[in-house]
Amino acid sequence: MKHIIVTGHSKGLGAGITMALLNENHYIHGISRTDNTDLQKLAAAKGCKMQFYSCDLSHTDTIESTMQLVFKNIKQDECEGVYLVNNAGVIHPIGTLETLDPMQMDLHMRINLLAPMYLIREFVKQFNDWKTEKRVLNISSGAALNPYHGWSNYCTGKAGLDMFTRCIATEQEEVPHPVKLMGVAPGIIDTEMQTTIRGTTDEQFIHRQKFVELKETGQLISPTLAGKNLVELLFSADFKNGEITDIRDQY
Ligand SMILES: NC(=O)c1ccc[n+]([C@@H]2O[C@H](COP(=O)([O-])OP(=O)(O)OC[C@H]3O[C@@H](n4cnc5c(N)ncnc54)[C@H](OP(=O)(O)O)[C@@H]3O)[C@@H](O)[C@H]2O)c1
Asked: What is the CATH number of the domain that holds 238?
């Protein structure tokens, strides 16, 4: 049995990833604020084990106890691999720096950067001695490499997550049973996050119109296809420790 922990499994890309994981050899552990009952029904129909853990990842002090609940359901003697997909994320606040609320900036960094860092810490600690396959896939963005006017928080959080991925990857190279970590930009996907981007004002985000056009000209990737490609990478022999990649360069 492969155990896969997916944050933000309830909608968007996370739901696409979870959909691609549904099979009888997988046990999916979904961490979000809300569950997805359609996915639960599909999982049951496919004989796939799936457990929902309610957690607001902005409350970073609850991450350790949530992961302890997950770990109770992962038994070493029946485990063929453990995987963590750090997918949950937010785009807001959007706007030039002087218009941003510090509380919103704080919330953003807790969800997009600190939560994945703490989740990886729990994962690495728990499975330190396990000889099974251990992988962490962090969902990054092209915004980690390219500065966007009005997206200072999002770009900074994703760039930070990429660097964290690379740092922990170097640490893991020195241990007997390493966890492998990768960061991947998933492309531009038709999710609520894109709806939020299109719903900003041109003052908040000067490139808003470009994202409206991407939607209108059918250039957004479906969460189902993006999820399928990411799951392929997660289990692939091409999963290279410490690498940051763009899924569009892979598939
Ligand atoms: N969409 C794109 O074009 C695009 C492009 C590049 C990268 N990405 C990245 O892909 C990932 C998924 O984005 P998406 O587009 O699928 O966004 P989305 O449709 O808005 O979904 C976000 C997911 O994150 C969860 N989440 C948000 N805040 C949370 C919190 N405080 N605690 C726990 N879970 C929380 C949500 O679950 P609940 O609401 O149930 O908590 C939901 O499942 C993000 O990391 C994003 O940065 C997206």
From this structure: 3.40.50.720
